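User
New here, explain this?
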Amino acid sequence: MPPRSIRIEHFGQAAVTTTPEAMAIEAGGSFPAADRIPGAAGDAFDWHAWYQAWSAKQGLKREGSPEPTHLQVEAADSFEAVIPWSQLSKAAVVYSINGQDLGSSGPLRLYVPDGESACLNVKRVTVFRIGYADGKQPEATYGFKNQFTPAELTSSLRKV
């Protein structure tokens, strides 16, 4: 996947690759990130506005179709977060600063100002997985995909 590409995976659909700029256009416009997240820099688009437009374009918005239960976000550094859909009402996706890409903190940055998780700012987002869970909504979780035990870390240091 090229570095500025964003992969969108939606339950039951083939994955789609897009760009931050295309997502902003699909969302119907952008706003200063600081309007929603005090102190945040850059241009952002509304997560739900983007999802509504994208899902309609994909033919996913049919009468009686279920609302997603969660969003799983994957970053370029192997960081992952799962955010309950109900916490995304004010989520903002930052895609540029002064018309330029985000550089080392991009290609996208997701802010979740109403989230319950300690992880309300995910940098370097490259994958959005929109999911459905049977029963109750999943809880917010976050962490790195690659996890090591203290023993594994210690043994690696001894070999150096």
Remarks:
- The beta strands are 6-10, 16-18, 31-32, 43-46, 70-75, 79-84, 92-96, 108-111, 121-131, 141-144.
- The chain has one domain: 6-159.
